[in-house]
Structure formats: C-alpha cells, structure tokens
C-alpha cells in the first residue's frame, strides 16, 4: 500500500501534495509510453527534477507506482460509469455502459499492457490486481458492478441478485484479459464483445426466474462462491 504522508505545517502540505502529484503524473505517462519494464523511479525522479531519495519518500518502490496507476484507472472507471449510467434502468444497458467505461479507462495503456500482465501473473506478485495492496482499486472496480445491479429496475431472483455484482466483476476481469490480446484497431473486437454479450445477458436473465432453473443456478452460484473462497 502507498505510504501515507503526514504534513507538519500547512504550507509544506501544499508543496508535498504537488510533488506527489507531479511524480504520479510523470509515472503514469511513462507507463503509457515506455511500458512497465522501462519505467523506473530513477527515470521518473530525473524527469520530475527531484532527487531519487525524494521520489522514494513518496513511492518507495515501482510497485507503489503501479498501485497508483490501478487507483487512477479504477477511480476514472467508477466516475465515468456512474455518470454514463444516470437515467439508465435496464440492467443489460447498464452493464454494457459500465464495461465500455472500463475499456475507455484503460485504453491508453494497451501497448504497455502485456508488460503489466507478465509482471502481475504470478499469484504472489506485488502488482497483482488480486493482491492485498490492490484492495482499494479492486473495491472501486467492484463498486461499479454493484451499481450496475442496484440501479436497475430489472427483476432478478434474490439469490442471484446478491452474487451478481461479483459475477459481473469477474466477467469484467475476463474482458480485460481479452482486451490485452486484442490487436484489432482501437480494440474494436473487445467493444463488440461487450455489446453482444451484454445483449445476450439481458435476453437470458428473465429465464433465471423460471422455477426449474433455480436449482442449477443456485448450484452454479455455490461453485463460484467456493472457487472464490
């Protein structure tokens, strides 16, 4: 997790926050342009015009910068999705809107995404989006899909509604992985996948209210819950 800074006087707090913001902006730009491997704290300190030690004070490791990236991306995703979903009550349309907002939030990092994936793939990786340090950004991402469900007027069986946000979030994680490997212009295949799968989801969701499907659906939900535990 990022190191918290506790200022001692008001004027110093302003300078400290400005320095931290500058480091963050330069780091995120470097991740977009150079990728994960080529971005270093020494390089960022040089571009920010500060000492390496000063950069380490705000972000002790490059992993902390990656967590800052996750936080920025997920904050943008949540804010954009909330705004775009205003007045939309159909759950399929809300899902499509939220998924596309997520793709928009990460679009600038497509070229560097394979490097992040390689660094994050190990279960014990410090930059894994499923790791302890990524809990904050991950919660923001989950919040998007809670709002997809909670803001909908679509009737959903209670048991399914309770677990649906988590299932939709997992689907978004799968979409993000697909997006990494999507080399179509502007990742149009990913966006088309969102549009088609959201429409299919909306068509199939009413079937979950049929009594003879309750058993299989509950079993599937139990399997997912067990896999996530």
Structure description:
With 229 residues, the protein is mainly α. The protein folds into two domains: 49 residues, Arc Repressor Mutant, subunit A, CATH 1.10.10.60; 164 residues, Tetracycline Repressor, domain 2 (Orthogonal Bundle), CATH 1.10.357. The protein is 70% helix and 0% strand. It has ten helices and no strands. The longest helix is centred in the N-terminal third of the chain and has 24 residues. It is elongated. The two termini are 23 Å apart.
Set out the fold topology.
Layout: H1 10-33, H2 41-48, H3 52-58, H4 62-85, H5 91-106, H6 113-120, H7 135-150, H8 158-180, H9 188-204, H10 211-228
What order do the helices and strands follow?
Answer: HHHHHHHHHH
The low-confidence runs, each spanning 5 or more residues with pLDDT under 50, are 1-13
Sheet with the most strands? none
- Overall number of domains: 2
Give the overall shape, derived from the CA principal axes.
elongated
Structural class: mainly alpha
According to DSSP, the number of beta strands is 0
CATH superfamily of the largest domain: Tetracycline Repressor, domain 2
Q: Say what the CATH topology of the largest domain is.
A: Tetracycline Repressor, domain 2
Could you tell me how far the N terminus lies from the C terminus, measured between alpha carbons in angstroms?
Answer: 23 Å
Q: What average pLDDT do the residues reach?
A: 89
Radius of gyration: 20 Å
Query: Strand percentage, roughly?
Result: under 5%
